[in-house]
Amino acid sequence: MIISQTWRGLPLRQLFNTFNIGLLLVVLLVVLALLAPYISTFDPNVQNIQDRLLAPNAQHWFGTDRFGRDLFSRVLHGARPTLLLVSLVILLTVPIGLTVGICAGYFGGWVERILMRLTDIVMSLPSLVIALALVSILGPGLMNGALALAFTSWPSFARQARTETLSIRRSDYLTAAKMQGVSGWRLIFGHILPLILPSAIVRAALNLGGIILSAAGLGFLGMGIQPPAAEWGSMVASGSRVIFDQWWVAAVPGVAILLASLAFNLLGDGLRDKMDPRHDK
Amino acid sequence: MNQLEVNNVSVSHAQGLQRNTVVHNVDLSVQAGECFGLVGPSGCGKSSLLWVLAGLNPYWEGDISLFGQPLESGKVFTGELRRRVQMVFQDPYASLHPKHRLRRTLAEPLKLLGLQDIDDRLSEGFKQVGLAENMIDRYPHQLSGGQRQRVAIIRALLLEPKLLLLDEPTSALDMSVQAEILNLLNDLKASRDLTMIMVSHDPDVIDYMCDHAVTMKAGRIDQEKYYR
Question: Which SMART domains match (chain B) (predicted)?
Fold first, then answer.
């Protein structure tokens, strides 16, 4: 017998689609990060050597690390720098990528050649290595980490924006706008940008998962936010020393990274499905 | 007075670094207040010629004089000239910005010109083409093809052009809507003293609309026809 489960008339299969699950996880992540000081059961930075490396128990839900700090509280607080860094990266990359891509597609000719070759060059750089190099020049920290990651992640936006601009550049409605005296930046921002932005948002959501991984990578290598502040990447790094005997020290922030990355990937996938005109549900 | 004089004009398209000439040594003259037809099979160069007259393709050679003033090859239209030549496009589904409400599409050029009483002009325009005024806050996808073409006509007329170019304005519409749009254009031509140049591959439409027409073939003028 088939039980048709519904919630307010919606079948469950439709309710738990990729987009909704992704959105739920992302919202949960943001809320937990915002409320971290109120939810966490301990101060994330207070060391208590007597309680070091405790297994998960009733008092320390996720156990403690090698300085006796409560892992649950540290993971919660670690969401904050991660989300902050990710939003900084997006705020930097999307405008830069879109500007470069739209200018290349709209102006064509030499402008396009120079901008797109520049994009190709940056795209061929290994992102984490360049980020490491930049951070070691600029000095480790949240802002510099964001700058370093942003430097290598704008080209994909530029390429996509260029392709889409090319496809609408000769459209009748842009020609009509030009004939009516609309030109220059007004045409680019008022007429081209609104058509390019939705897919850029989808791409941003899809890229966020990768950026979270890169941010954790920077932290793991000691180039992210500096200790004692809680950061997932550096927490995994410190847990990796005791990974065979006290696995939870590395596993807890590791799972947090996995879930955060997964949340944004699901959201991005769901957004892409929603924006796709062939998507009929 | 002749609104438009075209002498020995050739039109080319830029293909990478090369030019591909599609219209060869054409001569035309269009009088003020008439409807002039360009007929011919697809690919004969009639639309290419129209795009030059619209100021959208600067790659031409020869002599063109518009409203008594010579045009310069290689230059785009600006200012007054830009405003006085307007066009209605072939495909009503592609000529309105899909993410802008009609109000924005229609009002933006007027704002750029610094005109006052924009709302009055818009509602006047809607009345003239027989559209309900409450449609102004809709998006193009909420309109039918004929309604969109009417909006495109308002858009062109709001700038008070002297020369209206029509690039197969009815070929994407069904028969009854075609007739409505053609009658609307005829009325507007009479009431506004417009000069119109109409491109079509349909001799019947040209026959119905135009005072004077030429047939083009393979980039040249094949024969000249006078109606009326």
Answer: AAA
Contacts of A164 in chain B (CB under 8 A): none
For chain A, the domain total comes to 1
Please list every residue in chain A whose beta carbon sits closer than 8 Å to the beta carbon of residue B108: 177, 180, 182, 190
Reference B23, options B43, B5, B39, B2; nearest CA is B43
**Residues B86-98 pLDDT 10s:** 999 988 888 899 8
Q: What is the mean pLDDT for each group of 10 consecutive residues in chain A (281 residues)?
A: 58 77 91 86 79 77 80 89 90 94 91 94 89 88 88 92 92 90 88 90 88 88 80 86 84 91 90 69 45
Q: In the prediction, which pLDDT does A278 show? A: 59
- As a three-state string, the secondary structure of A22-90 is HHHHHHHHHHHHHCHHHHCCCCCCCCCHHHCCCCCCCCCCCCECCCCCEHHHHHHHHHHHHHHHHHHHH
- DSSP letters, A217-263, are HHHHTT-SSPTTS--HHHHHHHHGGGTTTSTHHHHHHHHHHHHHHHH
Q: Residues 127-166, chain B: which have Cβ within 8 Å of A?
A: 152, 155, 159
* Cross-chain Cβ contact A176/B159 below 8 Å: no
Residue at A98 is within a domain = yes
Residue A16 within any structural domain of the chain: no
Residue A63: is it exposed, middle or buried by C-beta count within 10 angstroms (0-12/13-18/19+)?
buried
Quick check: is A221 in a domain? yes
Find the CATH number of the domain harbouring A186: 1.10.3720.10
| Interface predicted TM-score of the whole assembly (ipTM), two decimals | 0.86
pTM (2 d.p.): 0.81
Both tokens assigned to A144: 């510099």
All domains of chain B in start order, with CATH: 2-95+160-226 (3.40.50.300)
CB within 8 Å: B109 and A181: yes
Looking at residue A193, its amino acid is L
Count of C-beta atoms within a 10 Å radius of residue A139: 10
Nearest by CB to residue B94, choosing from A172, A182, A194, is A172
Whether A18 is in a domain gets the answer no
Q: Which domain holds residue A254?
A: 25-275
Distance CA B50, CA A60 (A): 78
Residue whose token pair is 């480790």: A140
